[in-house]
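Table 4 source record.
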Amino acid sequence: MHRITLLLILFLLIPDAYIYFMYIIRKTKNIWLRIAHWIPTLLLIAGYFLLMQGIGENAMAHHAQAIGRLAIAIFLFAIPKTIFMICSLVGLPFHYLLRWPRSPFTAVGLVLGVVSFFNILYGTLVGISKFEVKEIEFHHPNLPKAFDGYRIVQLSDIHIGSWIENEKPVHELVKLVNEQEPDLIVFTGDLVNQRSCELEGFQNILSQLHAKDGVYSILGNHDYGSYYRWKDLKEQVNNLDNLVHMEKAMGWKLLNNEHTTLYHQGDSIALIGVENDGEPPFSQFADLKKAAEGTDGMFRVLLSHNPTHWRREVLPNTDIELMLAGHTHAMQAIMFGHSLASLIYPEWGGMYTEGDRGLYVNIGIGYVGLPFRFGAWPEITVLTLRN
């Protein structure tokens, strides 16, 4: 916590100090204007310390909205100033060594700073609920002809605790999904942030999701409650049991290292679901061998939350045709088709293929911590199977 506090203060103070000494004191001698320059940063630092004193343990579980809003406020001020500072610093050697004017670098910094400010604002006020329906096709010769044109809607990473006191977007999500008239709806994990009680008040909304062959789900790393400080292991186990019970009450069918057979016009395919299987330090509870037992020779769709599972086990050890995953959120930001998530996840969003086998990574609906999405709009995937 002390390191985070120090980094936060430096993140706020360094750009402010640079701008103050390089520009403010050179442009004005008015003491009140000089003081005014520091007021936003001092208020944000004071707000941070006040919030930290009052939140206690399990801060993200009990004060997620307050922490998220403060983080956005900090980003709104610090990121544009940091961008401006970097542009100005780039111009310094050109100014002192080549006698170039500093004004072009200052102008670029101002423009980029203003653009970043409004991008953050847009991602916070609009982006988090700007649902995007993505139409995808997956072709495979093993698909039974009766399933040609079969429509699967994939949702992932709803993180319902982030929507508390904001039910309207969840209603809109359900409406948009049902308008797709899917044959099947699948949810690939992270229904909650930390606790099953986050789902209270949303069960009636999510139970309205409708598909001809039902709604199937799996667990993601957040669903186990691993990021919450429980009194004891029993309390954590009870939390997970309650989440399973609540999903069942919504009419969702949870696949925990098991499979089901889907029938359509006399043919069938297997839908396999495993528990979370992430790269360390994420939990690894999947038992793919057990889940897929008895499905040999069938066209198989695997639900597995973490996309790294595909290369670690699915590709080398099975002949499963298609895997659907989530988890990455594309780090909630995509710029010009690229995301920082690619630095961690080789497959971070969209369709990936190896030969005739596929992985689709849905970049999620909700958010964790930071109420922000830009470019990585909340995704409703409509996947059509083709023979």
